[in-house]
Amino acid sequence: MNTIRHQLASPLQLFALASAGTILLPLGYVTAQALSADPAVWSRLWTTRIPELLFNTVSLAASVAVITLVLGVSTAWLVTRAEFPGRRLWEGALVLPLAMPTYVLAYVYSYLLGFGGPVEHLWQLVAGPQARIFSPHSYSGATLVMALDTFPFVYLLSRSAFLSMNVSFEEVARASGVSRFSTLWRVTLPLMRP
Questions:
Q1: Alpha-carbon span 155 to 93, nearest angstrom
Q2: Contact 142/61 with Cβ under 8 angstroms?
Q3: What is the gyration radius of the CA atoms in the chain, in angstroms?
Q4: Share above pLDDT 90 across residues of the chain, in percent, rounded to a whole number
Q5: Within a 13 Å sphere around the CA of 170, how many CA atoms are in the beta-carbon half?
Q6: Percent of the chain, pLDDT > 70?
Q7: pLDDT for residue 164
Q8: Beta-carbon neighbour count of residue 133 at 10 Å?
Q9: Which of 57, 58, 66, 136 could form a disulfide with 141 if both were Cys (CB 3.0 to 4.6 A apart)?
Q10: Domain ranges of the chain
Q11: What pLDDT does 94 receive?
Q12: pTM, two decimal places
């Protein structure tokens, strides 16, 4: 009796399987359609568009990753290691992008940084009426928007690592005459590694 019960799927397992099937169905359809295309079409795509699209995708992902890493670690270091007015406010404010859906942030950045938006208007007051700021719809704009949306994840992980780290190692390095940047690079960041 006990072995029969283990062989039958539970309702939760059936629900999980149905959910996975529902999610994977469109991916399977797209894959089947792509594989059924004429080889000449694939040959033409590989010689014209796919290399450029792959390069754009990889370079965008790498750019966003680097900016996200620099922003997240540096802001976490500032709020955990530096003393300045409003530090507590910044600790909470830096995670606010997580409270909004990504598409809402994209609309906000598009409005603020877009043609005729408030940021461009202020920029034209400072730099002249012909001055233009970068478009959020360009490569650099997309990189910035995606990095600003994802850096709170790195910030939270880095902040918790900084808070759980023994500060005495950094204090010894500073007392030995090592600069703040060298202390961060040689002592703090290696201690953050898992």
A1: 11
A2: no
A3: 25
A4: 34
A5: 20
A6: 95
A7: 86
A8: 17
A9: 136
A10: 11-48, 59-192
A11: 93
A12: 0.74
